Amino acid sequence: MKPAGAAGEYLATLLANPHMQEWATAARAETESIPEEDLYG
Amino acid sequence: MKLIIGNKNYSSWSLRAWLAAREGGFTFEEIHISLFIPGSRERILSHSPSGKVPCLNDHGVVVWDSLAIGEYLAEKRPGLLPADPVARALARSVTAEMHSGFQNLRSRMPMNVRKDYTGFGHSPEVDADIARIVAIWNDCRARFGAVGPYLFGRFSLADAAFAPVPSASRPTR
Predict the structure, then answer these.
(1) Assigned CATH topology for domain B81-169
(2) What pTM did the predictor assign?
(3) How far apart are CA B113 and CA B140, in angstroms?
(4) How many degrees, rounded to 5, is the angle at CA B12 between CA A40 and CA B163?
(5) Interface confidence (ipTM) of the complex
(6) Which residue, A14, B12, B48, B130, could crosslink B55 as a Cys pair with Cβ 3.0–4.6 Å?
(7) Nearest Cα residue to B102 out of B157, B165, B171
(8) Do A24 and B113 touch (CB under 8 A)?
(9) Looking at beta carbons, which residues of chain A come within 8 Å of B116?
(10) B134 min Cα distance to partner chain A (Å)
């Protein structure tokens, strides 16, 4: 998903949101895996 | 205030409630419950009558489901919804659409922060869901985006609703 124009700029805003980044950092630090959720390996 | 959430890697519903609470400036304790392991359901049920996360406990007021939690938080911090009634109605509409729709996207591209599944999960139905989301974003930005970078200018519950989409459809690392 790489929308152009306004939607693309909005997507970049979401990704750059400090709280979003905080969540993502914590998510990457988690060690549990749920095979059913890792759909594609 | 306590917010009961699931795995941050997987639980998109938890992200929505958590982000609304953080962006609303609330101070809260996070209670993490790992999902789909023995004892998960019992632990969740000890907090949430639905047996699902997220669940908010505000000094004994228990609110479950991310949509209800968002509305509860917005009652305490009205800035989480647009002040203009027309914008607020649209914000609620797109939030509800994200909450109840896009099943193809959800099932084929669930949120997974740690994995890069670029190129996986596409189907005509998934691509139609993505096209609809992009159309919502373009419309909101065109109509209400003049005062800030979010869908309705300032951050709102609508942004929290769409927050998992980047991690699900994986535009970039």
Answers:
(1) Glutathione S-transferase Yfyf (Class Pi); Chain A, domain 2 (1.20.1050)
(2) 0.94
(3) 26
(4) 105
(5) 0.92
(6) B48
(7) B165
(8) yes
(9) none
(10) 6
